Amino acid sequence: MEVYTIKDIARELGISTSTVSRALRGSYEINPETKRLVMECAERLNYRPNPIALSLKGSASRAIGVILPQVANYFFSQAINGIEAIAYNRGYHVIIFQSQESYEREMANVQQAMSRKVDGLLMSLSSETSDVTHLQDVLDKNVPLVLFDRVSSELNVTKVVADNFGGAFAATEHLIRSGRRRIAHLTIQPWLSITQERLAGYRAALEQNGLEFDETLIRYGTFGPDEVGPMVDELMHLESPPDAFFTASDRLAVGCLQALRQRNLHIPDDVSLIGFTNLNVADLLDPPLSTVVQPAQEIGQVAAERLIDQIERKLRALPIETVQIATELIVRSSTRLEAVKL
Length: 342
What we know:
DNA-binding; 434 Repressor (Amino-terminal Domain); Rossmann fold; single chain; about 350 residues; 12 strands; 12 helices; alpha/beta; about 40% helix; transcription; Transcriptional regulator, LacI family; HTH_LacI; 3 domains; 6-stranded mixed β-sheet
């Protein structure tokens, strides 16, 4: 495959190589029409920046570190796809680290990334992380940092998240409108941002529909493989057991489905089940699973764009803010809708 350079784009358009270079970097000095022509030509010629050459040109490594809990988690694997697509097109390498839900390993990952002189860090916190001092140290060294999905309010950084509150509200209200009144919520560690936001959405939907929030219907888990069964047993043995389950993760959704079936509870006749997931096989489960879908790839893309903008335009980057990406409620057979008057 022929490799094209900035000189080829400049020759094709009859402009200088410096103009092409600034246009590809998104420089404010280049007018929008010229940027459009340069980007179209680059796409047509299949131009790709050479990260090694770019790193030799300056002090930057042209590499970004990505630290996340687990690549095997479908949400994070999709987020990586989004991150790598943006990084590749803008001439950056991606170095991926897994914390495996461990705070100590996350700290080691940060140290390793910093020792490799990455230009910036993208992070989603481990389920054990409540102290973010190690990340404040990164900021104190003037290394750009963007958090995504699991974030911390203690850090003054850009955060890219799903609309966890809105998604949980929509899922809970859907269950209520399908006739359910005792809705259990299975979630993960209470200090995580996604846990707090989804619990708040669940609670708000109950209260706005005239149902009392009942703490006995909430169960907090970790990431153990066999923990969902005991949760289901505890809940179903309550004096007033749940008639629906709303789970806050892929693992909990699948575990709950399996536990209910093992206990001969029929879905949705005995209990309804809805998840907050990115499972790509949710429609193939038995029954097909209703779910709130997070736009994982888009979250990864936006997070990478914001980080690279900070790296390249430190004084002109977009302001620090929380970017919220909409979720989508998909209704399937696990919450078969019935005509109910509220």
